[in-house]
Amino acid sequence: SEQYPLVVSTWPFLEAVRAAWRSVDGGSSAVDAVVDGCSACEELRCDGTVGPGGSPDENGETTIDAMVMDGLTMEVGAVAAMRYVKDGIKAAKLVMKHTKHTLLAGEKASEFAISMGLSGPTNLSSTESINKWAQWKDNKCQPNFRKNVLPIDNCGPYHPTKSLDLPEMCSNTAYMQDIDSLLPHVGLHSHDTISMAVIDKMGRVAVGTSTNGATFKIPGRVGDGPIVGSSAYADNEVGACCATGDGDIMMRFLPCYQVVESMRLGMEPKHAAQDAIARIARRFPDFVGAVVAINKNGEHAGACHGWTFRYSVRNSAMKDVEVFTVLP
Ligand code: SD4
Fold first, then answer.
1. Are 207 and 199 in contact (CB under 8 A)?
2. Site described as Cleavage, positions (predicted)?
3. Ligand 1 neighbours (beta carbon < 6 A)
4. Low-confidence winner among 97-106, 118-127, 173-182, 194-203 (lowest mean pLDDT)
5. Are residues 45 and 51 in contact, defined by beta-carbon separation less than 8 angstroms?
6. Atom of ligand 1 nearest to the CA of 248
7. Which string of b and e fits 16-32 if b means at least 16 CB within 10 Å?
8. Most distant CA pair in the chain: distance in Å?
9. Other beta carbons within 10 Å of 302
10. What is the DSSP letter of 227?
């Protein structure tokens, strides 16, 4: 069908989508194209929140959550809170291809990745991540992810995602350009995660995710990135889904599993995406997040809550990547 191949990604990560498109248009498998696309984002350090040198945790360290899923075989590989190795999506693929496991975590994930030939140990900090952390650390009232603890200097307690009017800020282009100066909060930037879906020329579907997770998270925190069915899900029989947003909330609902299963039962991508987001919003009205759904016909649709979402699409009918905007 002329709907294949197809590449879809959260946010306007144009270079990542172009890299995946070159790969899949050249005949690569959906899995390999997803790895090429997400690797491009890691190398470019998309947004300063993917790959090395992004979002530091409470201790100032950058770690990586990543996952890849093959919708043909239903194999998954993932790494969580991986330290000292910059190639998150490649590490995830090594777990998928060379182990019977699905998810490796922490330093042991790093040891595995290095043993399989990825470079490391590497210091994942950058000047940018160190400065960002130092500024946060110096602020006695710094917002953080701890709750039910005595606030420092009576400054808290904080509810990070509640302290900002995100939809308004997202429609403000200054916010997009100069995120750090406007963000007194922790957690989500406007686009902290690449999650990508590809359908290759043979109609095989794959998804992948790579992220540094939430900024100033408690060390050890694992988000939705490496959780299958949460940040992404693929099934050749149906299609795929990619998610971004507040992983601490979203991973309780497996929104991407929900989207794919709803499409399996006959829902259109748009309805499936909206339904998955609505299920979360009913219980957590303040949550911030988005999903993008694709079916096997190459139809795509997004839904979001608490912010304006943008996702990228490339297929053979397009001259270059196109960006779609979804309003909450
Ligand atoms: C996380 N889902 O670790 C990621 C963050 C994200 O847009 O997607 N931000 O919670």
1. no
2. 192-193
3. 188, 191-193, 211, 213-214, 223-225, 244-247
4. 173-182
5. yes
6. 10
7. bbbbbbbbbbeebbbbb
8. 62
9. 24
10. S
**Interval between CA 211 and ligand 1 midpoint (Å):** 7
**For 186-222, how does the pLDDT look when each residue is reduced to its tens digit (9 = 90+)?**
455 545 789 999 999 999 999 999 998 888 899 999 9
Q: Is 201 left (phi over 0), alpha (psi -120 to 50) or beta?
A: alpha
Catalytic-residue membership of 63: no
ipTM over 0.90: yes
Q: Which residues contact 154 (CB under 8 A, 6 or more apart)?
A: none
Beta bridge partners of 313: 8, 322
Residue 221 is assigned to a ligand binding site: yes
pLDDT above 90: percentage of residues in the chain? 69
Q: How far is the CA of 20 from the centre of ligand 1 (A)?
A: 21
Give the ranges where 48-165 is alpha helix by DSSP (H).
Answer: 88-98, 106-115, 127-138
- The amino acid at residue 145 is F
Number of Cβ within 10 Å of residue 223's Cβ equals: 25
Residue 183 has pLDDT above 50, yes or no: no
pLDDT for 215 equals: 87
Concatenating the DSSP letter of every residue in 44-74 gives HTGGGTSSTT----TTS---EEEEEEETTTT
For helices 88-98 and 106-115, angle between their N-to-C axes, nearest 10 degrees: 80
Q: Whole-model pTM?
A: 0.88
Q: Which of 245, 279, 289 has its CA nearest to residue 259? A: 279
Please give the average per-residue pLDDT across 140-167, as a whole number.
Answer: 50
65 is in an annotated binding site: no
CA distance 249 to 288: 9
pLDDT at residue number 48: 62
Q: Dig out the tokens for 129 from the structure.
A: 């991540």
- The one-letter amino acid code at 250 reads M
- Size of the chain, expressed as the number of residues it contains: 328
Q: What separation, in Å, do the N-terminal and C-terminal C-alpha atoms of the chain show? A: 32
